[in-house]
Design goal:
By secondary structure, the chain is of the alpha/beta class. It has helices at residues 18-26, 46-54, 70-80, 100-115, 136-145, 164-169, 181-192, 207-212, 214-230, 233-244, 255-267, 270-286, 290-303, 313-326, 329-361; strands spanning 5-11, 33-39, 61-65, 85-88, 120-129, 160-163, 194-205. A 7-stranded mixed beta sheet has the order 3-2-1-4-6-5-7, sandwiched between helices. The radius of gyration is 22 Å and the shape is globular.
Length: 366
């Protein structure tokens, strides 16, 4: 029997998280599914775990192997999928509602029928698990932002649901980098179709934020997305190497990324440097609306701790005015100056902090 839904999950050393996903899928009322797990070279027993779990599941489970790289793994899984509906998930995703897949598939099919074409992609409302109560405001902001239909708000940890035909039409996942495949596919959907927020929540782990620090991880994400917008492909190719040098159990070290960025700008001819800064400045301006969302989330959480972007009156009212007064050459130049100042200032602060920590670790000998 051809499955109604093919679920593709890329993994690399996810033996600890996969049992939770398998249990979550086994609880779903929509059982006409197949699960395709694509391993990028795990060494923690992921393959053996899946082989032992396969006999306990009442839906097909296939384990594929390919070279590491999430985009490549997702494409390999999609190529082997038998269903017409493709759902791309991360290994640490969970569905608490047993009707999440059934209700979302129904909503997705209804919207496609209403549109008259399948140029549609769905994603779930994001919820973080494991977040500390002290960080309720930042996580409420991330979850609220993920519910908006705006560029830069949709990521792979929300799950991505597409019809195969549209997936092939937009060009599949980019494989040129070991990351950003979800960002580039989301941008392609915005260009060629439409995003739909599905009527179910997906829960994902907050482990990376908790281990590396909320602010450092968010700042690095912004730096990478800004480099993407500015066309800094060299920085994007070098960033994974800088990241792999760090201990993932400790707070994220940002200085190597800023030093790499500064060095790249110094190597550019001055015309290219100006153009790149200007493109990065436009990215900053294009995301200035997020400051308005901060006010909405702060106000919403004060009134109700479970607020997750249900209403955004400040954003809705003032975003058009913000665009009117800033989306022009002068506004872009001003944003460029602000961004240049922020990068320079942050680099100096990180240098000073590194020197201070180094001095404390290696006290002078008297």
């Amino acid at each position: 029997m051809v499955p109604k839904l093919s679920i593709i999950v890329p993994v690399l050393n996810e033996a600890a998280t996969l049992p939770g996903l398998l249990q979550s899928l086994a609880m779903q009322s929509e059982r006409n599914i197949e699960l395709i797990v694509v391993d990028g070279g795990s060494t923690d027993g992921t393959g053996e775990l899946l082989a032992s779990c396969r006999r306990q599941l009442d839906f097909p489970l296939a384990l594929l192997a390919t070279a590491a790289g999430r985009g490549r793994q997702l494409n390999v899984g999609a190529q082997q999928a038998r269903g017409d509906n493709l759902l791309f998930l991360h290994a640490d995703c969970r569905f608490h509602n047993p009707r999440a897949l059934a209700e979302s598939l129904s909503c997705f099919s209804t919207e496609i029928a209403r549109r008259g074409d399948d140029a549609l992609a769905g994603r779930f409302a994001l919820c973080f698990s494991g977040s500390r109560a002290a960080a309720i405001l930042p996580f409420a902001y991330y979850e609220s932002k993920a519910r908006l239909n705006r560029p830069g708000c949709i990521h792979g940890d929300q799950g991505i649901l597409l019809r195969r035909n549209f997936f092939d039409q937009i060009g599949r996942f980019d494989e040129s980098l070991p990351y950003l495949e979800d960002e580039r596919l989301a941008a392609a959907v915005f260009r060629m179709g439409q995003w739909l927020l599905l009527p179910a929540e997906i829960h994902t782990s907050a482990r990376r934020f908790e281990e590396e620090g909320l602010f450092p991880r968010q700042l690095l994400n912004a730096l990478i997305l800004g480099a993407e917008a500015a066309g800094l492909e060299v920085f994007l190719r070098r960033a994974p190497a800088l990241y792999r040098q760090q201990n993932h159990a400790e707070r994220l070290a940002l200085l190597p990324f800023f030093l790499q960025l500064t060095a790249l700008f110094r190597q550019m001819p001055w015309r290219q440097r100006i153009r790149t800064w200007y493109r990065a400045g436009r990215f900053l301006r294009d995301n200035g609306w997020q400051l308005l969302l901060v006010f909405d989330v702060w106000s919403g959480v004060r009134q109700n701790s479970s607020y997750r972007g249900e209403a955004t009156p400040v954003l809705d009212r003032f975003a058009p005015w913000f665009d009117r007064f800033t989306d022009h050459v002068v506004g872009h130049l001003l944003a460029t100056v602000i961004l240049w100042s922020l990068i320079q200032g942050t680099t100096q602060i990180l240098r000073a902090r590194e020197a201070l920590v180094g001095n404390r670790s290696h006290p002078a000998v008297l």
